[in-house]
Amino acid sequence: MSFTYEYPRPALTVDCVVFGVDEGGLKILLIERDIEPFAGRWALPGGHVHIDEEIEDAARRELEEETGVDKLFLEQLYTFGAVDRDPRGRVVTVAYYALVRLADHRVRAATDARDAAWFAADALPPLAFDHAKIVEVARARLRGKVRYEPIGFELLPRKFTLSQLQRLYEIVLERPLDKRNFRKKILAMELLVELDEHETGVAHRAARLYRFDERRYRRLVRQGFNFEI
Amino acid sequence: MSFTYEYPRPALTVDCVVFGVDEGGLKILLIERDIEPFAGRWALPGGHVHIDEEIEDAARRELEEETGVDKLFLEQLYTFGAVDRDPRGRVVTVAYYALVRLADHRVRAATDARDAAWFAADALPPLAFDHAKIVEVARARLRGKVRYEPIGFELLPRKFTLSQLQRLYEIVLERPLDKRNFRKKILAMELLVELDEHETGVAHRAARLYRFDERRYRRLVRQGFNFEI
Prior knowledge:
Two copies of one chain form a homodimer. The first copy, chain A, is an alpha+beta fold. In chain A, 26% of the residues lie in helices and 28% in strands.
């Protein structure tokens, strides 16, 4: 079976906004393009969707090929298709995003990428195509998401302090939070289990350790919650 | 400039999930397909994106061509691209959704649509392609959206009762709400202006009328809110 009419088709690509967190803040994984257009300019990892592969598989494949990063949870962000977004012709891109712990991923460049590196989200170099816009949409989505879905399970150590959890939220929300207000609200979510242990190896007074109540965490991821912070 | 490699390209389409509300409940706008595949089966209005048009413009155009419905606010829902979703070959569709007041839109079929009609969201006929799945994703998005963005401004009369507003939420959330709890929470949002007027022409005790505080409404649409209902 075929189409009644044959329309000229746009090219279909994927692009990935991979956010990485560590104590220092929020970073974004970029590649330095090796081919025109924008050769030598930094860009999001991405590429064409093959005719026989799922879109998300294309995102995963391009990310691994260009940066070596794999085994991460990708979410579809938005499809960007402005007629003039690519000088080569009509290209529609399905953008995905992910939030990972920097320490979990080693980065190396290959294929269309001359180089690959993490950049501070607030200090990105000029980007190719409309990738700066895609990044802004991803940042807004990330900030919004933490208000209705818990974060931290894959990003923190198994046992952590409330300060570490607060720091994670501050990094993602890109603003400082009031310590007492944060503690009151996060504990009210009943997401955390207080452990009978304290930090070790710190110069200041050792803080109590917590872990996530995994079942409750997964349930809140599934059904959502309202975290007004 | 052209591409270094030419990849076979999927077809690119759009599909629209238009929700309509009235006192009776939630409805969805469907068209009866006039051509194969699935000729005679109901489906979402949609079609190919032309090489020189924006994706959202394609959604708007196909919707108007196939159903006569126009002048509505469309939001991108998700891009569905499963390899086997269309028997004609690889077709990736960018789905959009909208929520309108039924009374505002007259429906008539044309072009690829043999017929066009509103169906109760809980009583849809068998749909073509993966449109039943697209509808479910749209319904879930709509239910989630009302928790972080106010609704009603384009859907209710300018002056309305709290019962009418509650009914709108019940229709969208697809479950009954507790009257006292709803009133307490919606009034706490400071979205409404209490008017010095009451309903007219009703047999029961006439309820007080309200209107939206438009500036506050728009601000909450922009910045989001947490409406745990």
